[in-house]
Amino acid sequence: MEHILNLIKENFKGQVGIYPRREGLFQLILPVFYEDGDMVDVYVQQCPDKKDKIRISDCGMTFMRLSYTYDINSPTREKIFTTILNQNSVINEDGNLYIDTSPEFIYQNLMQFVVCQQKICNMRLWQKETVRSLFFEKLEAFVESDLRMFKPEKSVIPLKDYPIIEVDYSFEFSRKPFYLFGVTNKDKAKNIAIALLEFQKAKLPFISMVVHENMEDLPKKEQIYLTQNADKQFPTLENFQETGALTLERMAA
Amino acid sequence: MLTDAEIKKLIRCPKRIIEAAPRKGMGDDKKSVFIQRKNLKLLSEDEKHRFDVFIRHHSMLIEQFSLGLNFKSDDRQIGNITLLRFNGAHGQSDWSKDGHYSAFHIHRISEALLAGGIYEPREIEITERYSTFDSAINEFLRYINLMNITEYFPHADKQMLLFEREE
Question: Cα(A187)–Cα(A191) distance, rounded to whole angstroms?
Fold first, then answer.
């Protein structure tokens, strides 16, 4: 292993520290940083099953760092994660990310590896944009497939004099229409409460349903607005997917 | 945007644990055999603010651990933000300008960082508040002013903060 460590020092022109952390496992101290000022965690060791190769790994540290604020706990996130790994030729084994490399390509593969680590850690930055937009995509997919027998119509304006008040979905299969709203934040919650009050003021016949991305994340005030004005609330999309169809049938009866 | 005074108030305001996963001890991470983890959901005593705490400990490199306080802001620009993070030592030496990487250190967010559009806790302080994972938990949970620690951490050391000082 010593000749490999010397090769690394040579490739990095001495701009790398190498320290044994456990038997046969060496930590590389590289001048590559995360946004919070900590350096990336990179380790090298003899590849366990290919004696002519070196394993560059993170000993699970990338996952650990990502998990501070972001978990890969949905099929979409899993897909994004796998895509990043595949595009960078990095393998995941039980949370340990690694590349096996020949000694002559160790410099290039080390650089490739640290870039991949940073891309993985930056997945959490997409949270607000990507995950929030996924909620409405998932809601749409569910409504238009599993609830199509209830004749859903998207972006309906119940009050012609108030075209700014729009319902996410209307279901007009029974004597009273069902108006469905999706909620991801407190601003939307307030707008829904206002819409429902306007419908009540105009004496519209309707039944209102609200699907939350996560009801627990909504501030108490906004939870109260909706509880006071909506006929039925689903605390999560998953709950709506499980019980939405039955609820529509029961409330229409 | 949060000021330094508001950040300090959020960190030090009295809070209660309302949910813990797992309820007792640390749990295995579903995705990684290297990580032991615990998450807490907190509510401030005045019920105005919500927080998450993450606790992570590397099962092989036991000096690698992290305990953080995330604030769930109503400000859409900020979103969920890490106010404070207690870390173990990452390595034996480092390239960092302050030498923090190879020491126990604390990351903090600040008004200046937020004003610059940086939402990472980039202000770093080398610390002697703790020297092990267990002492870090002890110090961290008291520092963020949890009212019901023993309900969820029955073996928590009952000593006061090791370093009581104004900050």
Answer: 6
Q: How many domains does chain B have?
A: 1
Closest CA to A40 of B106, B95, B69, B68: B95
- Cβ contacts (< 8 Å) between B58 and chain A: which residues? 59-61, 64
Kindly report the nearest CA distance between residue A59 and chain B, in angstroms.
7
Residue A15 confidence (pLDDT): 82
pLDDT tens by residue, A173-217? 888 999 999 998 888 899 999 999 999 999 999 999 999 988 888
Residue B78, chain A, CB below 8 Å: the answer is no
d(CA A156, CA A97): 48
pLDDT tens digits, one per residue of A71-127 = 887 777 888 899 999 999 999 999 999 999 999 999 999 999 999 999 999 888 766
Backbone angles phi, psi at A49, to 5 degrees: -120, 0
Residues from chain B contacting residue A31 (CB–CB below 8 Å) = 95
Give the CATH architecture of domain A147-252: 3-Layer(aba) Sandwich (3.40)
The CATH T-level fold of domain A2-125 is: Yope Regulator; Chain: A, (3.30.1460)
Inter-chain residue contact B58 with A61, CB threshold 8 Å: yes
